[in-house]
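Hey, quick one: can you model this chain's 3D structure?
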Amino acid sequence: MRNIITIFAIGLASFVAAQTLPKVGNPKADAFIERMAQMGWRAEGASLSFDERTLYLSLCKPPRTVCDLYISHIMNDNWPMPTRIDELSTETDEWSPSISSDEQTIYFIRRDIVGEGTRKEESKSMIYCAHRLPDGHWQAPEWMLISNGKDSQLRIYPDNKLLTFYSMGRDEDGGRKETPRCYYVTKIDKYNWTLPALLQTDPEQIMTPVKTLTGKVIDHTTKQPIKAQTNVYDVLTQQLISSHSTDEKGAFRLALPVGRTYRVEVCKDGYSKEYIRPNEDAQPAFEQVELTPQLTLNVRVFDKDIFTPLYYDLTITNDQSKEKKVIKGQDKRSSIQLPIGREYILHLSKQGYADTTYAFDTRCDVLTAQTDVDLYMRSGRVMTLLQAVDSETGEPIAAQYTLCSYDSQIGDNGDKNMVYTDTMLQCSQRYHLFTTAQGYLFYDTLFSTLAGEGSMTIRVPMMSIRQAATVQLKNIEFEFNSYLLKDESYDELKRVAQLLRQNPTLRIELSAHTDDVGSADYNLRLSQKRGNAVAHYLIEKEGIEPERLIAKGYGKTKPLVPNTSDANRAINRRVEFTILEL
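Sure thing. Here's the predicted structure for all 582 residues.
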């Protein structure tokens, strides 16, 4: 039995040695081809992809007598048993495969029987090529017109343009029809080639230079390699030239013929994308690409009209699970983690502003691990009707309105007397309304608009000018424990001066009041000085006749509310005027 095994082993070794096994230049791939031969397969050609991860073979396994085309993809540094490429293999021989560097076209020799069943039956070795379809399969192989039926030993070079082969019986052979010689053709376009020419120099000298782009793809978060896709585009035409997958270690190797401008897209489902723009020179280049599975979105929200940053509440909903994530506006900036590959709805809400919705689609190109996004909210609008009425009868009267917000005037109707006016105001805002009407005392008030969008009416009660009418002046402020007027007092005093100029016979008493802090005598003297200060301003700055004004201080003798709190004391510290004569 041992002798039989020994004889078998010697015979198998002799059989392998008798074959001229094809070589591809990769030690592991060449060892794999030898191992296939030891298992009884006959190898009639092999071609290794440019990234050295796919092996294309012409194999025949007894008892079959013809060769078919096979493919094997390396996995974990090992070559598994090859798989027959059914789209390319027939009942006749296919051998001498050669794969283009972009793996989009395969070239091979096929044995064709011409004149089968006749006395002129002849076996020819024809050059065929097949192009890869978008789904990864191969289209039906096509006979190449450059073939004369006596061709062998194909090779397509990395520039995907130069094709060499051996052939017999061509005119250039000078009648030596049985001597194979090396020829070359150059690709003109996808389907056309130059006429075959005898190769008389090193093919590398006539091949278009090729730039080798290698790289590795890793996860931005874990820094571990990931398997991704590389798509090569022509920048000028936007045409997809080739598409490749990286290996399990995230590595890729591409051949880019010099003379074109490329854009390499690196992508993976559920991850961001990255684009590489290789230089146009022929120097090898290496790129480490980081793809992220989630996008960090730094959100800031601004008022659409005045561009000030806002605090806000944010609700996020995704298109798949419909889950909601709510972020309360504790800050003017939020950082949100969004898994890539979904569409999100960002719903912004804030009191005084219209609810705002944004769609954010991470299924499109996401090129960075994080990005800053500025969003805008429009303040809510309240249609506000201003209507002046007589304080006694309630009848509407014609008046003039001046409206202010944020210490700035936002609108008035000038010299026009109007029974009412409407205006669009912001939600949840405080406004200062000043109203005047002929024959009436001016009205000065603050009001707040609605929290949500809608409409509201502000009725302005106007008091007619009559003897003994008392008007409390708002915004008359003094320095602490002093009778010096603050600047914010002047607008109100200008309105008093305007009233006096419109009614030249009017005489008024300016009365000043204090809270209960301090002695009665001190408060009486302080209030008198404050009343005098108001009268002095109207006389000196506004030109009001002195005889039309009487200033009097009442100290703490006439409180409006009990002096039981700071808020009440602030109410009692006031300046009023009372009409003495019409």
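One thing worth noting: Confidence is low (pLDDT under 50) at residues 1-18.
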